[in-house]
Amino acid sequence: MIKTELCELLNIRYPIFQGGMAWIADASLAAAVSNAGGLGIIAAMNANADWLREEIHKVRTMTDKPFGVNIMLMSPFADEVSDLVVEEKVPVVVTGAGNPGKYMKKWVEAGIKVIPVVASTAMARLVERSGATAVVAEGGESGGHIGELTTMTLVPQVCDAVKIPVLAAGGIADGRGIAAALMLGACGVQCGTRFLVAKECTVHQNYKNKILKAKDIDTIATGKRLGHPVRCLKNQFTRELFKQEYNSNISDEELEKMGAGALRKAAKEGDEKNGSFMAGQCAAMVHKEQTAQEMIEEMFAQAEEILNQANRFCK
Ligand code: TUI
Question: In this structure, which residue's CA is closest to atom 24 in ligand 1?
């Protein structure tokens, strides 16, 4: 059985978080992951406090296990959802896509365990100083909004930079990734892409099918010109966006407008041409739809087997 300090810290059986995927990670997926022994996470994404309040109430009817809320700091509603998680006494808040500094004191004083996603050692140190319980070090193999470094290089550097527990994210979709993350010094993992095809995930079936069909080189990072690179599956939308990034006749505002609403089109409508199908580089490692429980049990059984055999290399 694999157990780490994260399990006791958060009162979970398996040291795994489900990524807070915008338009995808709702109460249904979060409850399934929490019931399976991981930490299920609802994505507040660009939604307002009313939507999030309903999802929090829903998740509480579906599980009595701990769960988290992911707050995307670029959201226009970040301020109001930052108050709601305090009001609702949400056990864990994960932040993404920015510096959570201005909310940290309020959350820590409310007894919330705050676990920011970081893409650099500087941000890891900063959030540790302001009271973070742990950090998720997310490499650029991830889907969605990404940083510069890879998981392989970021995780050990963040582990050296801070004393709080570190989870690894980016490119992890099976037990091999979990075992490797533990060897890099992490005490847990966060997975997004694999959970996207969970039976309890309510995303459009076309999105799941695209993940299941994806090959190794099928993702691309666009948005570098605007300063926020985003990794998605290649399709007509991303190819056009990529092309226009190099077109100096198009303004940043026009480029920004091209991306607006595309993730909703992918997740809710399954629009294969105009949707932004955010996915990590490990999409090709995801082969079948399973329940969240089957996924977690399979991943940890594989990780345990590998780790038990690892000393064969030591002569
Ligand atoms: O946040 C994510 N992934 C996301 S957010 C998202 S919604 C979106 N949609 C369109 C455009 C942009 C966003 C889709 N996927 N992952 C966590 C993450 N956080 N990755 C990288 C970071 C990060 C980056 C910079 C965290 C902190 C940071 O600090 C910057 C600073 O202020 O120094």
Answer: 97
